[in-house]
UniProtKB/TrEMBL annotation:
Keyword Metal-binding: yes
InterPro entries on file: 4Fe4S_Fe-S-bd, 4Fe4S_Fe_S_CS, PSI_iron-sulfur_center
PANTHER family associated with the record: PHOTOSYSTEM I IRON-SULFUR CENTER, PHOTOSYSTEM I IRON-SULFUR CENTER-RELATED
Molecular function terms from GO: 4 iron, 4 sulfur cluster binding; metal ion binding; oxidoreductase activity
Protein name, entry field: 4Fe-4S ferredoxin iron-sulfur binding domain protein
Keywords: 4Fe-4S, Iron, Iron-sulfur, Metal-binding
Lineage, top ranks: Archaea, Methanobacteriati, Methanobacteriota, Methanomada group, Methanococci
């Protein structure tokens, strides 16, 4: 199992991660970086900083990690 970890102090709010996430993409209103006001998202930009909305929905694909230019997102292996 992978756990999503974010580092808001590094984030500059570009929104790359929000639009790259395939779970977020199920909602057609995921655009412009922020993401819609729903709990069916993994991540959203809130007040300019990356925020985990519902980490349980994350499938661990790593797309958000790849597109973040400042390494503000990591996937860590969780011990069972
Ligand atoms: S690892 Fe994949 S599913 Fe999880 S938040 Fe990032 S892009 Fe979305
Ligand atoms: S976590 Fe990275 S990709 Fe996501 S909004 Fe912040 S800087 Fe952009």
């Amino acid at each position: 199992m992978y756990k999503l970890v974010v580092f808001p102090e590094k984030c500059h709010g570009c929104g790359n991660c929000v639009v790259s996430c395939p779970v977020n993409a199920k909602d057609p209103n995921t655009w412009g970086g922020k993401g819609p006001e729903t709990d069916e998202l993994v991540i959203r930009v809130v007040d300019g900083l990356i925020t985990i909305v519902n980490g349980d929905l994350c499938g661990g694909c790593g797309a958000c990690v790849e597109v973040c230019p400042v390494d503000a997102i990591k996937l860590v292996v969780e011990k069972q």
